[in-house]
Amino acid sequence: MAASSEKCRFTWLFFFISFLHLLAILLFTRGFLLTRTELSSSSNCSDVSQSPCTVPHPPENVTGSDRRVSSTCWTQPAVDRLLIIVLDALRIDFLAPSTFYEEEKPWMNKLEVLQKLAFEERISARIFKAIADPPTTSLQRLKGLTTGGLPTFIDVGNSFGAPAITEDNLIYQLVKNGKRVVMMGDDTWLQLFPEHFERAFPFPSFNVKDLHTVDDGCVDHLFPSLRRDDWDVLIAHFLGVDHAGHIFGVDSTPMIEKLKQYNVILEQVVEILKNQSGPGGLHENTLLLVMGDHGQTLNGDHGGGTPEEVETALFAMNLKSPPTTASSIFDSSSCRLNVEGKELCVSTIQQLDFSATIAALLGVPFPFGSIGTVNHELFTLVAGTWSQQNADAAKCVDMELWMQNYINVLCINSWQVKRYIDLYSLSSIIGFSKEDMLHVGELYAQAQANYSDSIKNKHLFQKEVPIDDCMISLSVMKKQISAYKNFLHGVAELARSKWTEFDTRMMAMGLSILLACLLIQFFWVRRVNKLILFGNRGSSVRFILPLLLVTIRACSFLSNSYILAEAKVANFLLATTGILNLRHSVMKGSIQVEAVVFLLLSIFLGWGTEHGLSKQSLGSHFMNNTIWMLFYEVASILALVLLAILLYKNIAGKSWWPFMKYFLLSGTFLSYILIAVYWTFESKILAISVGVEGNVKNFIPRVIYAIGFAQLALLLFCRIFKQKDMTSDYCESVMIRAIAMISIWSPTVMVVLGRQGPFVALVLIMAVWCITSLQKVAHDTKGDTVVGSFVSEPISVTQMSLLAVCLFFYTGHWCTFDGLRYGAAFVGFDDFNIVRQGILLSIDTFGLSHILPIFCLPFLVALKHPLGNQRKEIFFADLTKVFLMYGLITAVTTTFTIICVTIHRRHLMVWGLFAPKYVFDVVSLILTDVLICMASLFYS
């Protein structure tokens, strides 16, 4: 077969495999990542007449001091105004006293004003630990808070371009029922609710390097609005803590400063509210909520389902205090002494309950799709939920009347959830099973059976209740409340376990195509291998160990524990190959330096992964020490110099096209110098950055990007227009192209990665050198011809794949959305552009784990073949086999990930762990296919 014909067949093979992978992923994703069915129905005031519950009526003579809206919908309005201050990514330990934790941290006890209020106003003010449902990105949390439903994973893809919410939600109900809603801060609110606000002051939210623009905008509009009476609900969404976490981490000076700033702002807000909270005052009956939408890890990230991410804080204070009996009803809070020796309590609330609770307090219908429960502790804090008793009224009587009110609210709450679940099961493609619906029906029937005629017929606002019967009545009503809560909690748990609809037919089609593609890839690997060996035996044995390693890693994805420990698994397998290489060299009679170095590199990567997840990366444990910080900053520059020397030696000694040679050298060296200057500006020791404007620092990365783009364009121009290399040796020609690609990409990758970039690049270069050198020792030439002795080893390709995985984790990434280093997307830029920031974030995430390793694969072939000593067809067939094996390894691991999410699609961790792993692996497979297609064209 002619060389050109065979080469063309191999090139089109890569594109055909890529097409099959893309088709399989699209089909499987279409079946797996379906959102729940969003019903178009919405709640109306008149709907409640269909419920079996008693609809409350307001007191007849509403005085001027009672500013509540006199009209009643589903529930009696309990507050006039609602002020919601959202502090994005508010961890619970930002607000709860440090005495609730084993060790006091620098970021604790900074929101002193809220802690003080929770102690002094304990009847009308309380701190809650709010539990969110993963995924914990802002889009899902805002959607979940306003709809009262559970988040769906597919919305993660919309986090950078949120679509308007079309299903029934709290904001829609407020506006529909005459409430004036004002918003300021994070512009995500305006994207979700584009036509709902009376006034809106949105500010761009995606520039995580900007800690102040959104917060300053909130402050500018918040204080004037608090003195105006043209709103009923005011939302102020601050972003500084979230951005400080993404860039600097929780344990950082900017984070502490932000928390102190918030404490001052909240102090001023409370002062304004209290000054106007007297009888007839503007805020006589205002409810203040200070809350987070989600938490964050110590590294400042969020998106997953760890306790740090799902646990956030909520502070509630009603300006109008309820009766003293309020504190004794269903109080399940945890209390401890604060740092001043005063007892402070923290309760717990599910964010799922937020929408139903607020709707009940404001007297608007619950959103149709809400499955939350009206929270009793938050309901208790509001004075308007209590009947107006005389000062000498018995506490038991007062409590009984409140419980009657709460029972009726729970009755409406349960009726709403039941009608939604019934309609959802009928309207959706799959819905809930008959067994599930029977269970839900039984729970609801039990709750309604306890709703006795005496309670149904008892007027909610009656003034007199026999004191003798009070205690008996309380016991009965507690059982009724428990019955309703059992139903509501049962529905919530059912929805959590079976919310998402899966199209198993589409999933099976996608998985089948992927499995078929694996057979095609394996067939072509064997065919190309036989073509190289001309039918000689001895090659099959070499596939056993790589196949075993790949299978072990792939099977580990079937366990959520091993997915969490994926970095350790990959590093263990890589180190295992290093030990086997060392053992093999010893058995040959000598210890190769490359075997020892490779094993040490594996150990170093394993150690570095444990410390590579912090904002300061490699030096995270030493950043508080000035000497270690200086050493780290100087060492990164020295590593950059070493890379430049290695590059010069490899470029200077090759027969390049002259213009490209000097342009490549000068451009890359200039980029390296600019990187060193940029890091000097960013130095934590020299403090040069204080006097340098942001535009100047942004200019340097942009120049580096421009140089890399110009070099890449020139290199591709030379290839497209068949510019001949200065060497006739095809092996050296491929090496020149590989070095060129690495030198072009490396400056951009390193400036985005930060100071750890040169260290990791050196690790990659040294590891590739070791793997290439060890091929000759690991090769068993028995039974092979001379040609066979130069065939690339499958174990070498497997080592490259494992090395790429280890580099991914070593650079601080993780297969969850909180593992994305969002700050890297803004290196060189302050404003947000979804395409530009998406490219930079992709380079940061996959630069040293995909782009550079794949363009390094030709070294496994070029450095092994004696220059000019092999047939050209054999050389390029061997190169094709390397690409095929690398793609096969990636496809096998991705296939097992897909099998894993198929098996665990009803697992509790499906959206918090398995689905993010699936997304990262399919993106990895698609990127690998694209890069291999590009590399096959470029190197052939």
Automatic annotation (TrEMBL):
Membrane spanning segments where? 12-33, 506-524, 586-607, 627-647, 659-679, 699-722, 734-753, 759-778, 790-810, 839-863, 883-906, 918-939
Q: What is its main location?
A: endoplasmic reticulum
Q: Name one GO molecular function term.
A: mannose-ethanolamine phosphotransferase activity
Question: In what way does this protein cross or attach to the membrane?
Answer: Multi-pass membrane protein
Compartments, record wording: Endoplasmic reticulum membrane
Query: Coiled-coil ranges per the record?
Result: none
GO terms for biological process?
A: GPI anchor biosynthetic process
CC per GO annotation: endoplasmic reticulum membrane
Keyword terms, alphabetized: Endoplasmic reticulum, Glycoprotein, GPI-anchor biosynthesis, Membrane, Transferase, Transmembrane, Transmembrane helix
Domain of life (superkingdom):
Eukaryota
The record, for InterPro entries, names: Alkaline_phosphatase_core_sf, Phosphodiest/P_Trfase, PIG-O_N, PIGO/GPI13
Q: Which pathway does it serve?
A: Glycolipid biosynthesis; glycosylphosphatidylinositol-anchor biosynthesis
Instruction: Name the family the entry cites.
Output: Belongs to the PIGG/PIGN/PIGO family. PIGO subfamily.
This chain's protein is named: GPI ethanolamine phosphate transferase 3
